[in-house]
Design a protein that fits this description.
By secondary structure, the chain is mainly alpha-helical. The protein has a domain of 81 residues. 75% of the residues lie in helices and 4% in strands. A two-stranded antiparallel sheet has the order 1-2.
Length: 136
């Protein structure tokens, strides 16, 4: 048997086989504790990185949804505007067709400007309150 005497400060190891086995086991346990500590620290670092990435992606999704809803709202208003413009365009097309009709133009001139044909008399009647309100 080899007997080595090791000194650690005020503690002296006698160096027999049992002491060597105990010291070896303590080294193994210390190494395991160190590795466990390192693994836990790595795990926490990875979790923090994962959390930061998830928060970043969540914020990006939130912003994208807000932009998307704004665009949808804008599309709705533009569709309403388009339908109004198409209705105006249809009215203008009808007016163009009517203005190409000679009888419509004659009726329009008679109504608007009190124009009359030869031998025709025009009577203007006083307007009532209900007809004035209907025109407005």
């Amino acid at each position: 048997m080899q007997e080595q005497i090791r000194t650690h400060g005020k503690i002296t190891s006698i160096g027999n086989q049992f002491a060597q086995e105990v010291e070896h086991q303590q080294q193994i346990d210390a190494r395991r504790r160190y590795l466990r500590h390192v693994h836990r620290r790595r795990l926490w670092v990875l979790l923090v990185i994962l959390l930061v990435v998830l928060i970043g992606l969540g914020l990006q999704i939130f912003r994208t949804n807000q932009i998307n809803s704004g665009i949808k709202q804008q599309v709705q208003t533009e569709k309403k505007q388009l339908s109004k413009t198409k209705a105006k365009n249809d009215n203008f097309k009808i007016q163009v067709k009517q203005l190409n009709n000679k009888t419509y133009i004659e009726k329009l001139i008679r109504y608007k400007y009190d124009y009359s044909k030869k031998g025709e008399l025009i009577f203007t009647l006083p307007e009532t309150n209900s007809s004035i309100n209907a025109k407005n």
